[in-house]
Structures are given as C-alpha cells and as structure tokens.
Specification:
By secondary structure, the chain is an alpha+beta fold. Helix content is 18%, strand content 35%. The chain contains ten helices and 35 strands.
Length: 660
C-alpha cells in the first residue's frame, strides 16, 4: 500500500509518437535501482518498445517534453549558501543556514545524452539567495521548438537580498536565456495568453507574504491592474476564489477558476482581460465546486474539469473528445471514470481509476478506436484484493442530509466487523469515491472503514463549507458522530469495536470524539492533530497573518470566544477521555506544530489517562515514504490491539498506564 507508483507523470510527445514517464523503484527490482526515466516508442501501439534511462544521483521531481526530441527534467539538489563576504544567513530561529534546497531544469535528448542545464547559476544575474526555484515553466512555446518561457530571480545591484522575478526565453539546447518581461521582488508567478505574451501575474502581499494579488493586463497594454486577491495557506480552499486554470484560445482571455455569486460554487469561466470580467461559464454546477482541472502539459489548453457529488465526475469541454471518452466509459463501467490526460498526434492518453483500481493508463487511437493498456500505476496491488466502496447516506440530528463512504472488507476480521472512523483533514477538504490507500489498508486488515463528509467540507458550495465555521468540536463533530451511530443502528458494524483515526483536522476530530463521546469509541488516533485551539491561534498569529485570520473566521476569535475555544480544546478536557489515545506527529511539521501533540500527551498523563506518543522525522503531509510506512505500521498495530482483542467490551479505567 505504501510502495510508490510505478508510472508517474506519463506524457505524450507533441507528435504522439513517444511516451515518457518516471518509473519509481518497485518490489522485486535489483538492489540499488533508483528512479528511472522511461521512453516508450509508440510507432507500433500494439507492441510499444520501452527504454529505461538511469538517473543516478538525480532527484528528478517532474518531466516534460520540450519538443519531439528534447526532454526536460525538473530536479532538486542541496546547495551551499553563499551570500558574500561579511553576510551571515540565519533562519527564523536565528540559527545559521549553510545549505539550502534548490531546483533547476536539465534538458536531454531522447537517448539520455546531450545534457544541459537551463540557466547558468554562475551568471551574476542569477547568483542570488532567492533563486532556489529555477524549475518552473510558464510556457512551453509549442510554436517555437527551441525555447520555453521560465521565470527566474534577477539580481538587482550588489545585494544578494534584492532580486525580482523576471520572465525569460530559454534555449533548451544551450541553456542560454534572454529576459522578455520585468517583474518585481514580490512577483510569484507569470501566465501567458494564446500568443505566449505575459498577461497575468501573481504578487505576494500581506504580512508573511501569504496573501496574493492577481495582476492582469489586456493584450498590448503596459499597465498592470489588480483584478483579484486571495489567501494562500494550508487550511482553506474556500477562499481561493480566483485562480488561473488554463490558456484560452483567445489571446485576450484566460480560463480561470472562480466562484459564482449566483450559485455559491466554484466553476470554470472565461475571463476577459479587456473588460476585467468573468464571461460565460465553461462549466458550473449548481451544488458542487470544481475540484481541479487537467490541462494538456504541452499546449496548456483545458482537457477536462473534475468535480464530485457522491461520485467523481469529469466534464470535457471538447465535444469530439467527449464522444471518444464516452465510448471508453461504456467499456470500463460506471465505477471507473475515464479521464483524458493528453491528446496528441491522433492519440488520447487516458487514466482509468476506481475503488479497486488505483490507476491505469491506456492509449486510445481516435482513428481506429482501439485501446492499448500502457500499464498500471501500482501493479503490485491486485484488484481482487481490494475492497468495494459504497455511499452511505444518513440524516444529521438537525435534519441535514449527509453522506459518507464505507469501505467494506472482503474478509471481515469479525462478524459483525469492527469499525474504523476516518474523518478527513482540512477541514476544507473532502474524500472522493475511489481508491484510498489508508481505507484500503484498513479494510485489508478486516475493518469496516467510514469516511464522513461533514459540514465544513470542501466541494459542496460556499454555504456547506461555511456551515462549519465556528463549529470545530461542535456541529462538525456531531455530523461525524451521527454518521457513526447510523452505521451501528443499521447493524453494519460491532458497536463494541469502534475506533476513530484522523490526520490534521481529522486528528483533532479523533481527539474531540474521545472527549465528547467516550462511550462510542474504544480508542482514538490523532496524527498531527490540533489539541489546544487558543494555543494554535497564538502560534499562527505570530507566524502568518492570512492563516491566522482564516482560523479566527473559521474556528473562533480569542478576544470574543475564549470560553468556547477552551471548551472545544481536547487538551483542556483530557480528564473526560476514558479510552487509549495514540498520538503521532512530525518534528518538521510547519502546519500544526508538534507542540500540539506534546500538550495533549502532557494533559493525558496529568489526568492519568492511557496515551502513547510517537514522534517522527517527517513534516505535516507524510510525503516521505519511509515515515508514511512507519506511521501506518503504528496505526494498524494500535487498532489491532484495541479492536481485535478477545475482550472488547467496557472501557479502560482511568489511570491505566500507556503501552510501551
């Protein structure tokens, strides 16, 4: 379950004759084999020929075609900090910084040779501390096979601390660059129109630079104007109400994600630079937000729009492409949506996924209507071993109609099966009907898994998300509880064998579940969860303005709501918890500080309650495969101990010692 996918970022060449993808090492590979680049010749789709290029010592994060013969590699590496004589660089704690993580783009031919780096870091223009991200491509310039557009920090004067983000035309054969547009020190990103002219850019604003101003200009104009502002932080999605989505066919327009004032949902719109206005929607659902869009990686044109009600939905704006995909959907069935990823040379690259299919790629020939399977993302996972998922609808105590996803074990550990409740993080996130590695892992262990979509979740419009504002530990928690009780009342799980597990906001929900409904659960697991709301707000206020303002709006204001915040802080109600608690947290977490779990551990110990705290070396998102595997090992071991024991009735007495 935790092994990396075998096929990552597959992309057709512009002429559709070749395919590239990153291949991560798999179980059974020879020792020492690392990440490799696969180049597949599709001249005979029935028998594609694959060549694997080793990438020794290279941490390649992304790949792309520069043209039909050149491949671009986005790489990261550790570099020494050199700020000049007499200049000392320190972090926010005042500790000296001697090394930083940098990124750069390399260019190679299809045989892996003739390599060159884009941008020369020895060039005085780019020799600045702020050029840590030299791996972003603004425009692949389909009409110019020798160049791409990339942003880079250009040093201003002698100071290494002053650098503006300018836009450059870069030669992918030589690495040489020429500036085509001037930015500012606050510039974050550039966007171009159908003529490859820069017409939009993002600028940082606010304390900590976490607010973003969107600047735009009509074609041919020199003056930039602010057209939108949004906050970018780890917690909220509801606030990102204006985002670049894709390139428009019109040079005076862009395709953007924006919220409709009429429906309150996020849709895909045409945006006019001349009129500074949203035009007719390309896609807008009355009840559900757009989750994301897929753009062609080379032309940067819109391929599809993804959203979900109870099931994932895909809207394809191009009628001809939609007709082809509709025929494929009939072959694979309703539980396996077909997502077009790219179209080139009369071929369509599609991804098929579902609850029992983590993801597989197929090549469809539009002329012959033939389909060739290119490979599965995770071939080690047999669909026969994966559990089915179904939608469970239930009513909240106030009458609201809600639902969640139930993953049913193929081989229940007991009859009726024990239940693991898995509230999602965010909280402005959502689960989707499909493959979920944690839910599938728990189902493989014999557990019934429930993922409730409580109010406050993203994807169901503004009103549904804002219904959770001020309701951490309140209505949002009750929505989880009501879903669990509806499952138990239906006889679908053993009421004496229920645990709640969550990460981030889900970790908070697990702890509050242990506080508010200790008789409902046998145990609780909090991964990187918030435990003390006032302390979290204080930490965020000192760190980041926009995130703090968001938390005040969605959780509560310490100046006006302190009593409520304290009553909804698990660390301040530890004596009410009567079940074993497992705490997991990364030392490098910069979203929810590890001190939150440390406070929870101390409070439970002071109250004489059973608690186990296992810190790890990771961050908030568990992106390190080794850390992720270790965390899941501890979670499943803890659940087995408390749900599969011979005696599962009753609760632990206060004062029980924490397990080793």
């Amino acid at each position: 379950m935790v092994a990396p996918p075998e096929i990552v970022q597959p992309q057709l060449s512009p002429d559709g004759q070749r395919l590239i993808y990153l291949r991560y090492p798999q179980p059974g590979d020879p020792p020492g084999v690392g990440r490799r680049l696969a180049v597949v010749d599709l001249s005979d789709p029935a028998q594609p020929r694959r060549r694997l290029l080793n990438l020794p010592g290279l941490n390649v994060r992304w790949i792309a075609w520069g043209n039909n013969e050149r491949i671009l590699l986005g790489m990261t590496f550790v570099s020494r900090v050199s700020a000049g004589r007499g200049v000392r660089v320190v972090d926010q704690n005042g500790d000296p910084v001697t090394r930083v993580l940098r990124s750069q783009v390399g260019s190679i031919n299809i045989r892996g040779g003739d390599s060159v780096f884009l941008f020369d870091l020895n060039d005085p223009r780019f020799n600045t501390l702020f050029n840590q991200r030299l791996d972003r491509v603004t425009d692949f310039l389909p009409e110019d096979p020798e160049h791409i557009l990339m942003p880079a920090r250009t040093r201003r004067g002698r100071s290494p601390f002053r650098a503006d983000l300018d836009l450059y035309r870069v030669n992918i054969y030589t690495g040489e660059s020429r500036r085509v547009a001037h930015g500012r020190q606050t510039t974050l990103a550039w966007f171009t129109n159908a003529r490859s002219e820069p017409v939009m850019r993002f600028e940082s604003a606010g304390r900590g630079g976490r607010a973003v101003n969107v600047l735009a200009r009509p074609d041919g104009h020199r003056r930039w104007r602010r057209v939108a502002r949004f906050d970018q932080h780890e917690f909220g999605r509801i606030e990102n109400e204006f985002q670049w989505a894709a390139r428009s066919e019109s040079h005076d327009e862009a395709i953007v994600l924006a919220r409709s004032e009429e429906t309150g949902t996020i849709g895909v719109f045409r945006y006019s630079f001349t009129d500074d206005a949203l035009l007719d929607p390309i896609f807008l659902d009355q009840d559900h937000d757009v989750d994301s869009v897929e753009i062609d990686p080379f032309s940067m044109r819109l391929m599809n729009v993804r959203y979900a009600d109870t099931h994932p939905r895909i809207h394809i704006p191009d009628d001809s492409l939609a007709e082809h995909v509709s025929g494929l959907e009939a072959r694979f069935g309703p539980d396996f949506p077909v997502e077009p990823v790219q179209q080139a040379g009369g071929r369509i690259l599609v991804r098929v996924s579902g609850p029992t299919e983590p993801g597989a790629y197929h090549l469809y020939d539009a002329a012959t209507e033939r389909t060739t399977e290119l490979g599965a993302e995770r071939p080690a996972l047999s669909s026969r071993a994966l559990a089915q998922v179904r939608v469970h609808r239930y009513g909240a105590r106030d009458g609201a109609a809600l639902f969640g996803y139930v993953t049913e074990p193929a081989r229940p550990a007991l009859d009726p099966p024990p239940l693991v409740v898995l509230p999602h993080g965010g909280p402005e996130r959502r689960d989707v009907y499909g493959f979920d590695d944690v839910a599938q892992l728990l189902a493989a262990k014999g557990y019934l898994v429930f993922q409730p979509q409580f109010r406050g979740s993203y994807g169901f419009g503004r009103a549904f998300a804002e219904a959770g504002h001020g309701e951490w530990g309140g209505l949002m928690q009750d929505d989880v509880t009501d879903g669990v009780r509806s499952l138990l009342e239906a006889g679908l799980a053993d009421p004496e064998r229920v645990c709640i597990v969550g990460f981030s906001y889900g970790g908070y929900a697990a702890l509050m579940g242990a506080v508010k409904t200790p008789d409902l659960y046998r145990c609780a697991v909090s991964g990187a969860g918030v435990a003390d709301l006032p302390a979290m707000l204080t930490w965020e206020r000192e760190r980041e303005e926009s995130a703090h303002d968001y938390l005040v709006r969605t959780i509560g204001d310490p100046d006006a709501d302190m009593a409520m915040l304290e009553s909804r802080s698990p660390a301040r109600r530890a004596e009410e918890i009567r079940i074993p608690v497992l705490l997991l947290h990364g030392r490098e977490d910069d979203v929810v500080p590890i001190e939150q779990s440390e406070m929870m551990e101390a409070a439970l110990q002071d109250a004489g309650r059973p608690v186990t705290f296992i810190p790890n070396s990771g961050g908030h998102d568990l992106s390190d495969p080794g850390v992720y595997a270790t965390v899941l090992f501890h979670v499943t071991g803890f659940l087995d101990e408390h749900l599969l024991a011979a005696e599962a009735s009753g609760t632990d007495e206060p004062g029980a010692s924490a397990p080793d």
